[in-house]
Amino acid sequence: MSEHFHRTDIDMNRRDLIRYSTGGVLSAALPGLGFAADAPLATIPSTGEKIPTIGLGTWITFNVGNKESIRVQRCEVLNRFFELGGRMVDSSPMYGAAEDVLGFCEERAAGPKDYLRTTKVWTSSNSEGRQQIEQSFDLWSANQFAIYQVHNLVNWEHHLPYLHELKAEGRIRYVGITTSHGRRHREMEELMRSQDLDFVQLTYNLEDREVEDRLLPLAADRGIGVIVNRPFQRGALFRKLNRQPLPDWAADIDCTNMAQIMLKFVISHPAVTCAIPATSQLAHLEEDMAARYGPMPDAALRTEMTKWFDRIY
Amino acid sequence: MFSDLLYQLADYVPYSADIWRSLIETINLDHWPESLVLLPILALLITADRMSSRFVDAFSFILLALCWAFSAWVFLAQHYAPLYWVAEKIIPFFLIQAFLLLSFGARCLKPDTELVERDGHPGGILLLVVLLALPALQFVFGNSSAQLSWLALSPDATAIITLAWLITTGQIRSMLILIPLAWLGLASLNGLALGLWAEALLLPAALVMINLYWRPKPVTNP
Questions:
Q1: Do residues A123 and A155 lie in contact, with contact meaning Cβ atoms separated by under 8 Å?
Q2: What is residue B95's three-state secondary structure?
Q3: How far is C-alpha B190 from the chain's CA centre?
Q4: How do the pLDDT tens digits run along chain B, 222 residues long?
Q5: Does B25 touch chain A (CB under 8 A)?
Q6: Residues near B189 by beta carbon (within 8 Å), at least 6 away in sequence
Q7: Alpha-carbon distance A71 to B58, whole Å?
Q8: How far apart are the CA of A72 and the nearest CA of chain B, in angstroms?
Q9: Is the CB of A238 inside 8 Å of chain B's CB atoms?
């Protein structure tokens, strides 16, 4: 079956953008796309552990049902992600079959055994939450999760203490909370002040910059790692930037396409630990992973980037 | 603004358009050639209007009930639920619809039940059009021949054909229309979110169909 997933428009736009803005010179800019092993790493504030600044999200892209041929294709994406130096894969029980597909890939020896498995608990029921967590361990065939988060703050009152119990037992290494779409920021801020958290996950991108005001500075202040979801605003930014030429300053930070501009904007924020773009396409994965390399925008250029985006949109 | 609305709507659909098509395709292929059994059922539904017998009506309602139960089990429980947790919440409503259709079918068999006056109802032609319209539109919008929605195998087709059957049998004002209409509403939102325009048209098409063939109850003198 041809690969026209939900991001079809996005994917087409991305291809168009590359053609339009660079003449397809991505490969020339990054010979072989093998990448050197010296991409800068981010530091997890609570432990000092180093991790790559780009991870892999699985919302929609890994929720593919039971068809084996599609699952195998996703395993190829996952394998390529690891080949390119990726380590963190983020999912959730909310993402349908995504965790099951990741387990499917793991059974086929995709990737290193010690990658940063990251998932969430997402239910308002206490007992169901514990079942859900055990089910995630089974689905991923995992003995340990690197990061376990309370999805969208749902029933955090119960889940957070339980996740800390699991952390004490060594079954998970980091505890976090998540939100997206700019929702529940006030509550997230309160939890960041009152709870023992290793990570928060939130939405941040060129369009949605609300977290710059309070949450990102607070994370830096409190030593909480930040995982950024929706760095492309679920593909909407590609639609908005379609037909725009790459700005002149893109070359200064080694960006050859819009995806890299968007990702570099996100991961260059001092409080951000990593971004987790989702894709089912190998070519897009390679574009995304290339954003870890080369100069990052400094504060002045970051301001210029937001002005550029605001002028367009 | 419309694109922003679609964008927000898409946040509630955790799979892609291709995975949705693949879901339909998988079910179609898994149940081929057994699904050929649907052909006589469809023929019966389409010609039932001309037969106008209580046995044919009863049999048709019962067959539609089986189609809803089949959709609940195969489409929702086996294939859709792993993709989207909402499916599990919908299954009981499909089973309720199956039960209601069965009840109506059983009621048709009672000798004292008057057959609904068919005069003025669109009958088999409407059913035929409805049966073919969705797959035809899906084909036009890019689905392969294996990815077309058919009665029983797809809840979309089952719901719209049920509505056409209710119009045909004059039961459009009954509670039997509620669950099909609700599903078609969800199907249209799903289609809008995924950019599947044949599916997006389902609810508007159903409302137009009902509006065209709605017959107010005749006023009877005491």
A1: yes
A2: helix
A3: 15
A4: 455 565 577 788 999 999 999 999 999 999 988 888 888 887 877 777 666 678 888 888 999 999 999 999 999 999 999 999 999 999 999 999 999 999 999 988 887 776 666 655 566 777 888 888 999 999 999 999 999 999 999 999 999 999 988 888 877 777 999 999 999 999 999 999 999 999 999 999 999 988 887 665 555 554
A5: yes
A6: B9
A7: 44
A8: 14
A9: no
**Contact residues for A168 (Cβ-Cβ < 8 A; gap 6+):** none
Chain B residue with CA closest to A3: the answer is: B18
Chain B residues 191-210 within an 8 A CB cutoff of chain A:
194-195
How many angstroms from the chain centroid is the CA of residue B105?
17
Pull the structure tokens for residue B140. 């036009």
Q: Do B17 and A8 touch (CB under 8 A)?
A: yes
How many CB atoms within 10 Å of residue A300? 8
Question: Does A3 contact B at CB distance below 8 Å?
Answer: yes
Q: How far apart are CA A161 and CA A146, in angstroms?
A: 17
- Other CB atoms within a 10 A radius of the CB of residue B114 amount to 7
Question: Using a CB-CB distance cutoff of 8 angstroms, which residues of chain B are in contact with residue A70?
Answer: 19, 22
The token pair at A294 is 């080369």
Instruction: Measure the CA–CA gap between A32 and A28, rounded to whole angstroms.
Output: 8
Model-level pTM? 0.86
Mutation target to probe the A interface, by most A beta carbons within 10 A, among B6, B26, B83, B194 is B83
Residue among A4, A96, A100 minimizing CB distance to B18: A4
Distance from CA of A169 to the nearest CA of B (A): 30
Contact A102, A135 (CB under 8 A): no
